[in-house]
Amino acid sequence: MDSERPDEPAFPGAGLAYDGAACLRFYSRLPVPALPGEGDPHAPPDFTRVPRMLPLAGLVLALPGAVVLLAAWGLGLGPFLAATLAVATGALITGALHEDGLADVADGFGGGTTRERRLEIMRDSRIGAYGGVALVLALALRIGALATLLDRVDAGAAVALVLAAALSRTAALAPMVLLDPARRDGAAAAVGRPGHPALMVAGTLAFALALLAALLGLPFGGIVLMLVLSGLGALAVTALARRRIGGQTGDVIGACQQVAEIAALLGLVAAVPA
Asked: Which of 9, 30, 118, 192 has the CB geometry, 3.0–4.6 Å to 47, for a possible disulfide?
């Protein structure tokens, strides 16, 4: 939190670095050490500010999967195995955080008949039929899209994986911005709502990464589709959460990320000739 930080920055750009480190700790299992002058690295992140670094954090989290994707492809394992290993790497790094949210939302929204019952199901750590099907479909779509991109754009698939990770995490801020927390005692209520300055910085960074991906060879039309469809995917989940539980939770944010990432990858596949 700001109150726990020194009045003077410990080094140039310290505030941005602190927020980036907070994003990495919150969204992954990476052992991110405390930075000089940071204060308590285990304090809950202040989401009024830290989302400004979310696109770059998403990039960092996807880089190991991109490296695995290229290494497996280069070793001749084929597109399916390469894509599967890349997706598995990403799940290990994040602790399947977003996948867990997707499964909980599918179980709650699919199995509950009232708002209260849906929220109760979403808090249950056990996975049901709706959640299991949602996970299988999500994994299959991500692996299939990456495998197809390997066939069509070769190493560009790694760029697509990184860009989709950055865009989808940025898009997943939609429920935090547009909806109130569905629970007063939930994590979504505790971390706060992103402020406009943070959203402006996050949006600018996401757009800059999209331009960089174009310079690295991804088709411009495909990148536009990635931007548009990732946003629409997150908005669709947000609208569904509004109808089903009247607000947002951490699980809803995770589901938004998964849907937005799948939508982004499929958009690029649709734009690349077979």
From this structure: 192
Q: In Å, how far are 78, 136, 249, 256 from 259, measured between CA atoms? A: 26, 13, 16, 5
pTM of the predicted protein model: 0.93
Site of tokens 């969204």: 27
Residues 83 and 146: beta-carbon distance below 8 Å: yes
- Residue 226 contacts residue 220 (beta carbons within 8 Å): no
Distance CA 244, CA 195 (A): 26
pLDDT tens for residues 217-274? 999 999 999 999 999 999 999 999 999 999 999 999 999 999 999 999 999 999 999 8
What torsion do the CA atoms of 211, 213, 219, 225 make, to the nearest 10 degrees? -70
How far is CA 115 from its chain centroid? Answer: 25
Question: What burial letters (b/e) apply to 147-168, b meaning 16+ CB within 10 Å?
Answer: bbbbebbebbbbbbbbbbbbbb
